[in-house]
Amino acid sequence: MRYSAARVLWEGLTGHKGWTRAWRDPEPKPQYDIVIIGGGGHGLATAHYLASIYGQHRVAVLEKGWIGGGNVGRNTTIIRSNYLLDGNEPFYEFSLKLWEGLEQDLNYNAMVSQRSIINLIHTDAQRDAFRRRGNAMILHGAGAELLNAEQVRREVPFLNFDNARFPIKGALVQRRGGTVRHDAVAWGYARAANSRGVDIIQNCEVTGFRIENGKVLGVETTRGYIGAGKVGVAVAGNSSRVMAKAGMRLPIESHVLQAFVSEGLKPVIPGVITFGAGHFYVSQSDKGGLVFGGDIDGYNTYAQRGNLPVVEDVCEGGVALMPIIGRARLLRMWGGIMDMSMDGSPYIDKTHIDGLFFNGGWCYGGFKATPASGYAFAHLLATGKPHDTATAYRLDRFRRGGMIDEKGVGAQPNLH
Ligand SMILES: Cc1cc2nc3c(=O)[nH]c(=O)nc-3n(C[C@H](O)[C@H](O)[C@H](O)COP(=O)(O)OP(=O)(O)OC[C@H]3O[C@@H](n4cnc5c(N)ncnc54)[C@H](O)[C@@H]3O)c2cc1C
Question: Cystine design at 50: which of 12, 45, 182, 378 (Cβ 3.0–4.6 Å)?
Fold first, then answer.
């Protein structure tokens, strides 16, 4: 069924009796050409592009819980392509371009809203660094603007400009950045992949791999053995646990990151704002809630909930930046498990096991990467070669000295 304004009107007039399920609930088949483990944004996007671009239809996505229950439905919805390094910027710009055409591609309203992202500048050194990053963005066609303090004040006058410990001196702005409704991305990709014959199998946890003579033959699951020509793993925060079942130890640590939503307020925040002197970022949802977050909790965990010191720290950052929110009430908060890599950049690569491929290490920036990650992973699975925009995301880069350390903080997963 195609979604359209005419369909909404017709269903509205006829009692909404004609809607069909967005995706089937199939029993697993004994054998697929490609099995994707993980029904998050990246796994579902991979399945969609495998079917729509690479003509692969005997594909299954195995999800241990439900579609949208992982990080794809837990993040703060920010998309952008404001990166500095050559290994990253073309990939994230490719992703932003895919976001721009996503709703037409999927025939699904994912509420892609390019409402801009404003990275605030508080020191002269930071202005230099942001100018350099902005130039890299412009060279890659991503677009960037450097604003002075007066220009920032005109756009977001409610910030604490002069009385703050860290006065605002300007901002780097990407107008094409913004937000996308996170769980709609999972639903949209699931529906589109399903319509091309992909089996999306929920409540199906992968518990092991069947590997013989260095080649993967299939996966053991809570719903029985499923054979596969190739297996792609895209389980984000659970990467280390799942790949350990294939005997691999990854350059990844798992940490919890929290997100917060305030009570609904009148529209005040025009786009995404990030505080350059503390770790705090905020946007406003269409329902009015302020959606914000900050640092990871800083200890290794697989729990999808965080602790109070970070709640206090994030709220302090928010009030320091925007005293007007001091009396807004916090409505809800939650956590997600982050697959933090050693240099802050991801992996999309083959493994030493024939037929086993890995996608992970997204840290807390993997939502914006969803379309490009799915596209590049589908390319790798279908052709055996890395996609042009993802050639740097190799698992062996630390051995070769090919780090992609965007923040320049070294092998400190908790700081990326
Ligand atoms: C609080 C928070 C805020 C964030 N904010 C942003 C942001 O603003 N912008 C941004 O770009 N990124 C953000 N991120 C990061 C982003 O959400 C993640 O990097 C990205 O969603 C990870 O990819 P995914 O969607 O495939 O992961 P997930 O949705 O977690 O998908 C992985 C799936 O694998 C499944 N799985 C695990 N083990 C197994 C198994 N054994 N068998 C079968 N299935 C299994 C899980 O159940 C899960 O559904 C944020 C993350 C969090 C938690």
Answer: 378
Whether residue 276 is found in the same domain as residue 337: yes
| Residues ≥6 apart with Cβ < 8 Å to 301 | 254, 255, 256, 337
Give which of 232, 309, 310 is closest to 48, Cα–Cα: 232
Residues 6+ apart with CB under 8 A from 284: 265, 267, 268, 269, 290, 291
Residue 113 covered by a domain: no
Please check whether residues 285 and 396 belong to one and the same domain. Answer: no
How far is it between the farthest Cα atoms of the chain? 67
Q: CA–CA separation, 187 vs 44, rounded Å? A: 9
Q: Hey, what amino acid is at 202?
A: Q
d(CA 396, CA 137): 27
**Residue whose CB lies within 8 A of the most ligand 1 atoms, among 222, 282, 367, for a mutation test:** 367
Measured in Å, residue 237 CA sits from the centre of ligand 1 at 6
Is residue 115 in a domain? no
- Cα(73) to centroid(ligand 1), Å: 7
Please state the domain count of the chain: 3
What digits encode the pLDDT tens for the residues 337-392? 999 999 999 999 999 999 999 999 999 999 999 999 999 999 999 999 999 999 99
Distance 83 CA to ligand 1 centre (A): 21
Q: Are 288 and 265 in contact (CB under 8 A)?
A: yes
Q: Tell the residue number behind the tokens 């992609």, with chain if given.
A: 404
Q: What is the mean pLDDT of residues 168-181?
A: 98
181 pocket-lining for ligand 1 (C-beta < 6 Å)? no
Q: Is the pTM of this model over 0.90?
A: yes
Q: Are residues 337 and 257 in the same domain?
A: yes
Question: Are residues 333 and 270 both part of a single domain?
Answer: yes
Ligand 1 atom closest to Cα of residue 363: 19
Query: pLDDT digit string (tens) for 106-124?
Result: 999 999 999 999 999 999 9
